[in-house]
Amino acid sequence: MTKTSTSLVVIRHKASECVGCCLCEETIPQYFRINDEGMSELIDSTEEGVFNRLNALAIDASAIETAIEGCPVDIIRMDKS
Question: What span, in angstroms and rounded, lies between the C-alpha atoms of 22 and 19?
Fold first, then answer.
């Protein structure tokens, strides 16, 4: 029997301030895509104030942190769920 991780983290993204550098989509394409306007969007997220919110797998936390650190406009956050 194979164990799978169900631990989650929350990604928050302030899409309105995106500059379209594409780093998040290149780093964690399972969570971000580039839209028709060339800006990133959090896939299948829900709006929560000025942020879009998505539950993500905790096993991806290191890659998410890389995207957070590389974002030139500091609009990505990660919290424990």
Answer: 9
Q: Measure the CA–CA gap between 4 and 44, rounded to whole angstroms.
A: 22
pTM for the structure as a whole: 0.89
Q: What angle do CA 45, 17, 46 make, to 5 degrees?
A: 15
* Tens of pLDDT, residues 4-54: 557 999 999 999 999 999 999 999 999 999 999 999 999 999 999 999 999
Whether the CB-CB separation of 28 and 68 falls below 8 Å is answered with no
Q: Please report which helix (H) or strand (E) contains residue 53, including its range.
A: strand 51-57
